[in-house]
Amino acid sequence: MIVLSACQRGIRNAVMCSWLVFAFSVAQAGAISTTFVSDNSKRGNMFDIHVTNALTINSFEVNLATGLSKDIFVYYKAGTRVGFETNSGAWTLLGSDSVTSSGSDIPTFVDLADLSLAIGDYALFVTTDGTTTSAIRYTNGTTTFSNADIAIDAGVGTAVPFDGNINPDRIWNGTINYTLDGNVVPEPGTLALFGAALAGLSVLRRRRS
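RESULT FIELD:
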């Protein structure tokens, strides 16, 4: 690695080296999408996910009906959704975000608190505030979508959250954006310090040459 090599070749400023190494520990970002070709809608989706590499979910993208401005809520739980569709006490609210639809079958970005997940099985519930029956667009079917880090199963469409009015074999239309654990996403201030460290490294090399 270039940074480590430079440090080993004689940069004596330990603080500078530490910042350089930290700044290059950039997160390995990933994303998984299902489909945005919808043929049905309701107020939300419950579905299972299977995490095969520990990761942190950073944000979502959803399929929201054209013309809507809605609060999107995301709940989660360890283990499957099956048998817990009406048990609100089994779920934890991750948060909500007020969004305006980008249009049907076009991803609408939803920014929530980060959710760190170890390897294992979990359930997610993505829903609106319950005032528009056909807010969340989804697709009828049973397809599972997966990559090396995570799999998303088909789930159910829901009406009012946790009321038991559900329709089986519904594929959530959406994207999960995540970073793999063990990596760090530099904040803007960190990137500024990284730039200053590189400038200092350049000056140091010129003085030594």
